[in-house]
Amino acid sequence: MTSSFEFNTYPARLSDAERDRALKVLRDGVALGRLSHDTFIRRMELALAARRPDELAVLTADLSEENRFSRVVFGAVEAVSGFTVRLRRAWQAERLPKLLLPHPGTAHALRIGRDPVNGLRLTHESVSRVHAELIRQGGVWVLRDLGSTNGTTVNGRRVIGAAVVREGDQVAFGRTGFRLSAN
């Protein structure tokens, strides 16, 4: 006979490791195109609310793990793809015109844009009138986007506000690219 004070024997809460494994399977499923974004969001919510291991198993049952051969093949494809991207970037970097950094003792910012009063005037239509500025602060060069329409990038990443740059970096103002150089 059981008393009314006895409880079920399964744990009240899943371990973080079990939940993390299920969430990883769901993330991999959406990354590989096996789940739609909406299905992923719904299953993620259910995984976070799950209380038993069998509830997690139901959420990932149709997302079977890949076999070892598939992982090796996909890993090789990722490595080759990453290499070609790096090769293309290196090839383009050598072809970019140099943008000489101002003398380190210069106290004024180098303004960049289409306006004739800028220190570096670029006439390309993708460059804003007052596009960006380059200034030496605390011993480092800082490139600041000044609210340009087509953006400023450093090494392919868009600058939001400001970014520290150094010699050899690839910078672009709109669709006009340069490689920073000290000489």
| Number of strand elements | 10
Class from secondary-structure proportions: alpha+beta
Tally of helical segments: 4
Element order: H for helix, E for strand: HHHHEEEEEEEEEE
- Give the fraction of residues assigned to helices: 25-40%
Distance between the termini: 89 Å
Task: Give the uncertain stretches in residue-range form.
Answer: none
The global form is elongated
What is the topology, as strand order, of the major beta sheet?
1-10-9-6-7
* Mean pLDDT over the full residue set: 85
How large a portion of the residues is in β-strands, by DSSP E? 15-25%
How large is the radius of gyration? 27 Å
Instruction: Please outline the major beta sheet.
Output: 5 strands, mixed
What this model shows, in words?
- It is a single chain.
- This protein is α+β, with helices and mostly antiparallel strands and 183 residues long.
- Helices cover 36% and strands 22% of the residues.
- The strands form two sheets. The protein has a five-stranded mixed beta sheet with strand order 1-10-9-6-7, with no helix packed on it. Strands 3-2-4-5-8 form a five-stranded mixed beta sheet, with no helix packed on it.
- Helix 1 runs antiparallel to helix 2 and helix 1 (16-31) runs parallel beside helix 3 (53-60).
- The chain is elongated, with a radius of gyration of 27 Å.
- The model has no long low-confidence stretch (mean pLDDT 85).
